Amino acid sequence: MGRVDNVTATESGGSVVRRILLGSQLRRLRESRGISREAAGYSIRASESKISRMELGRVSFKTRDIEDLLTLYGVTGELEREGLLGLAKEANMAGWWHSFNGVVPNWFPTYVGLEAAASVIKVFEVQFVHGLLQTEAYAQAVVTRGMRDPEGRRDEIDSKVALRLERQKKLVSEHPPRLHAVLDEGALHRPYGGNDVMRAQLEHLIEMSERPHVTIQVMPFSYGGHTADTGAFSVLTFPEPDLADIVYTEQLTSALYMDKAEEVGQYTAVMDSLISDCPGRDASREILRELLQRY
């Protein structure tokens, strides 16, 4: 089973946020000087694509690279340089999820860090219950179902489940984020793990829905079609005013992180529509209770 370092979710999630914040500041400095990515890359003996990845917060930062870029961008004041170099040092701190490298896809650790740093998490799921709301037995069933030769990969399955449970700890922390989950009814009819597992999972959803910072809504079959015809997605909002909302969508072999205002706005509008069209908290809880009777 994967090892989890003794680092809080807030601390570890902050490293990802700081990486993105530093990247955006480097981009603003470069653009204010009219310097191309190609020229910036040349100054640190790197490619244009590396500058792009740095500005998006997708890679770690070398102190020498940041020092050279700040000099190129005309940042000579000691206090400003020290502040940005300190931000780079904090951004390079490894999060607890790095213990699971090699177990999860290479695009997923970034999401885990962003999720850990978010103050508001809004999700829509169609295939199964969202990972933040899964019981351990249900998570085992979901992960196992998605594996080829699961019997030969028990350690990997256990590590993926451990990561999922570790992510959930923030929901019961002293300062939890607000979670708003819209679940398609179809996700609640798929019997992952059998009746006992589904019964416990539905009971868990009912219990979680009673927490003040958690809202769970069910999009019923009876509604027909809805606006989220492109599948599951998440919208993350952060307490840092300089960090824009981020939309996360996952495919079979990759994932997308979107922060452009136009794209985020479209997904936010879809989420708002889902929330408006679904039965409210209390009515959705009744749907969960009715489904529970099937098991």
Quick summary of this structure?
It contains twelve helices and six strands.
Shape assignment: elongated
The average pLDDT is: 87
CATH domain fold name of the largest domain: Endonuclease, Chain A
Residue fraction in strands: 5-15%
Low-confidence stretches: 1-12
Arrangement of strands in the largest sheet: 3-2-1-4-5-6
The domain count comes to 2
Please give a structural write-up.
By secondary structure, this protein is α/β, with parallel strands linked by helices. It folds into 2 domains: 9-91, lambda repressor-like DNA-binding domains (434 Repressor (Amino-terminal Domain)); 101-292, Endonuclease, Chain A (2-Layer Sandwich), CATH 3.30.870. Helices cover 50% and strands 11% of the residues. It contains 12 helices and 6 strands. The protein has a 6-stranded mixed beta sheet with strand order 3-2-1-4-5-6, with helices on both faces. Helix 7 (136-145) packs across helix 8 (154-168) and helix 10 runs antiparallel to helix 12 (281-292). The chain is elongated. The model is unreliable at 1-12 (pLDDT under 50).
Write the layout of secondary structure elements.
Elements: H1 9-32, H2 37-43, H3 48-55, H4 63-72, H5 78-91, H6 108-117, E1 120-125, H7 136-145, H8 154-168, E2 178-184, H9 185-189, H10 195-209, E3 214-219, E4 233-237, E5 246-250, E6 255-258, H11 261-277, H12 281-292
Parallel strand pairs: 1-2, 2-3
Antiparallel strand pairs: 1-4, 4-5, 5-6
Helix pairs in contact: 1-5, 1-6, 2-3, 4-5, 7-8, 10-12
